[in-house]
Structures are given as structure tokens and as C-alpha cells.
Amino acid sequence: MSLPFDPNGPLRIAYLTYRGKPHVGGQGVYTRHLTKALADLGHHVEVFGGQPYPILDSRIPLHKLPSLDIFNDQYPGRFPAYWEIKDWPSFVETAQFLKGTFGEPRAFSIRAYNELSKRVNDFDLVHDNQCLGYGILKIEKKIPTIVTLHHPITKDRKLEMEHTKTWFKRRAISRWYSFVNMQGKVASKMPRVVVVSENSIADIHTDMKVSLDRMKLVPVGVDPDLFTPLPHIARKPGHLITTASADVALKGLSYLLEALAKIRTERDVHLTIIGRPREGANADLIRKLGLTDCITHVSGVSDERIVELYAESELAVVPSLYEGFSLPAIEAMSTGICLVATTGGALPEVTGADNDTVLSCPAGDAEALAASIRRGLDNAELRQRIGAAGRTRVVERWSWKHCAQLTVDQYREVLSMPHNVEKLRKRDAK
Asked: CB count, 10 Å around CB of 399?
């Protein structure tokens, strides 16, 4: 028998993440650090996740809700065998795949609903991390629910369409991103949507029609004790580092590769890319530009090793065309490395002013990006000054503890809404 809800006591939270890649990509990193910080505050958290599964603090149970994993790193777009389709969510996922759409969010939301329907009495609140499938609406009818929406995926769709040359491919991309319409419908009906930047709030309101009064700003955080300068490690001249969680136009990696090719004609440079290498547009571009010998891909490594890689490099680069916040940016800044970043999306809100806490340049301009990188490589004093100021900015503004405290504030606001008070009253009366 579950304990009755205590509005002032520790909360019992079911946290949902349909994808939780551990080391790259915001979803898994956000999940790992936020849930740990919530546990540190004394709350009970259980994570329900799909592949790739997140890495969690030892105190936090992970309930695996396996998808068909059609779009895995090894064999993306694999066709599931008929014996794998054992239930309704798997049928939905397969049917969406056959239609050329991305079905994981919708299928995961059904799996999550089926699982949580059995455990309504075990949780005070459900926190959905950007799945926003139709099943989330069904969960919300039984258990108070809040969602995090990092940025509108409409931006991903728009940029992919703009960077695709053929009509056939544009049609395929449009079909693939059809799940965005579902996410907009679900988000607009949720009582509270947590958003990570003011820029994302404005874009979500414009693109997904979520009313401003339903959205609240809760910035993400960083662990400044983990992501910290390592002065005993010498920086390697001409070494750059970036994070590429996906081979998509949004991340702007192609512009960094073009900038690297320009700079390489002038000096020795090397780029470390944190992320698994994939065949695709950027792999083709690396070969076309003759950059294979000056690029290293690093994947599946610990946060501690990533901090060492930052310490070995002279500049970190975020070349994105759009970001809803950018965890890689603040993690890099927290290590004291000089950051070069574009002005895409929320990046200026996060990184601060050019020549103060960042070397900034317009998004989607390889020549301007190359110029900012040159400026950093040519001036060691500038790199040191901006790196130190960047760390100060991050430490003063963002921590996972602060993020968790603000998130809990939103939890309690949602739980105090009359319709949720009634839900919990009826549950506890049984």
C-alpha cells in the first residue's frame, strides 16, 4: 500500500526518457544529472527509458522499456523481424517506420502508459523528457504530469529541409518529422511545460502554439566540480574540440569542417569530435575536404575523460545553426577552455558577449567561423582571459542543484493545481 501524498514532503517521481544516450546529446546527459540532483535533494526518482539507455546514479532505478531500436547506431533503419512485433506499441512503431515516419516517441508513450497504469499509487508526479507522445496525455489523466521541452523540433525540420537539394529528399524529411505535429498537440494540452531558455519559450510559442502561461523557464546545469580546469594537463597547439551528437544540419558540423579546411592551409590543426562517427553527409564532407588525417572521433568515454580532452585542446567550438540551450557549451566553458560559438538560437543567451566570455560569429558562415577560430588560436592571452571569464559565468549562473530546486518548484506548482489535488485526493481515499 502506498503512502498518502504529503505536499511538503519528498516527492515520488516517475521520470520518462524515450532516448537516453549517455555521453552525447542533451537527453541522456540532462536525465543523468537532473535525476541525481533530485535524489540529492531527498526525492525518490525512478527512470523509465528506451534505448539507448541512460547511465544513472546508483540510487536511481532504471526500468527498461525496450523499443524495436530501429534507428540504432550500428544498423540505422533496420527492418524488424515479424517475431519482434509482439504488442501494440511495437506494431505502432513498425507501422510508422513503414510510412517513413519516426515512431519511437509515440510508441514509447504507449509503453510508458501501460507500465505506469499498473503503478498509479506509487508516484506523486510524472516528468516526461520531451517524448510528448499521445500516451503522455493518457498518463496525465491518471497521474499529475509535467514535461520538459528543450527546443521545438520544428527548427530541426526547417534546417534539414533547407539543406536538402532534391524534392524527393525534402518530401522524405517532411514525412520523417511528422511526429512534430503530435508533439505540438500534446505540449499545448499539458498544464505545465518546462523550457530551458527564453529563446526556446518564444520559438515553442510561435512554432508549436503552446501558450506562454503554460511554459516556465528552468535552465539546465553543469557540475563545476567535475567540469573543472585541469592545469596540470598541457594544451596541444592547434587542437580544437567539438561535440556532434547527430549528423544533422542543426548542429552545423559541416560549417566547422569547411572552416577547418580553410585554416589547415595556413597551419597545423587537429579536431576532436565527441560523438560516434557515422556514414552520411559529414563523413562524405570529411573525405572530400581531405580532413581524415586531422580528425579524431571519440565516443563512449566517461565525463572525466571528456574533461581531459577539453584540457588538452586550445579551443572548444559550438558551430550550431540552432540550439535551445547547449549543454556542451556550458560544460566546455566550465572547464576554462576558450569557447568559439555561433549566435544560433539560444547560444548568445547562454554563452554571453563576444570577446568577453566567448568568441562568437554568425551561424551558418564558415568563413566567419574560421575567422573566430583564427582569432583564438593566434592569441594565448585572449584564450586564457575568455576561458576564465566563461567559467565564472557558468559557475555563477548554472548548477544541477539549482536546476533541480527550480524543477521541484514547478512540480509543487503542478501538484497544487485543483485538478491534480482532486486526482491525489481520490487516489489516497482508496
From this structure: 21
0.85 exceeded by the pTM?
yes
Helix (H, G, I), strand (E, B) or coil at 321: coil
Distance of CA 242 to the CA centre of its chain: 15
Quote the DSSP letter at residue 6.
-
Residue corresponding to grid cell 518546462 = 194
The closest alpha carbon to 221, from 25, 406, 423, belongs to 406
Sheet with 359-361, side-by-side order of all strands: 295-298, 270-274, 239-243, 315-318, 338-342, 359-361
Q: What is the CA radius of gyration of the chain?
A: 22
DSSP string, 183-242: HHHHHHHSS-EEES-HHHHHHHHHHH---GGGEEE------TTTS---TTSPPPTTEEEE
What are residue 274's DSSP bridge partners?
A: 243, 298
Helix (H, G, I), strand (E, B) or coil at 418: helix
Task: Pull the grid cell for residue 261.
Answer: 579546411
Q: For helices 281-288 and 253-264, what crossing angle results, to 10°?
A: 10
Q: Spell out the domain ranges in the chain.
A: 12-221+399-429, 239-397
Fold for 12-221+399-429, please state it: Rossmann fold (3.40.50)
DSSP 360-392: EE-TT-HHHHHHHHHHHHT-HHHHHHHHHHHHH
- 184/133 Cα distance (integer angstroms): 10
Q: What is the pLDDT of residues 161-208, one digit of tens each?
A: 888 878 888 888 888 888 999 999 999 999 999 999 999 999 999 999
How far apart, in Å, do the first and last CA atoms of the chain sit?
Answer: 10
239-397: CATH class: alpha beta
Helices (H) and strands (E) in the chain, counts: 17, 13
Task: Count the neighbouring beta carbons within 10 Å of the beta carbon of residue 44.
Answer: 17
Residues of the chain with pLDDT under 70: 1-3, 22-26, 245-248
With beta carbons less than 8 A apart as the criterion, state whether 373 and 264 touch.
no
Residue 275, pLDDT score: 84
Per-residue pLDDT of 398-415, as tens digits, reads 999 999 999 999 999 999
Q: Do domains 12-221+399-429 and 239-397 have the same CATH topology?
A: yes
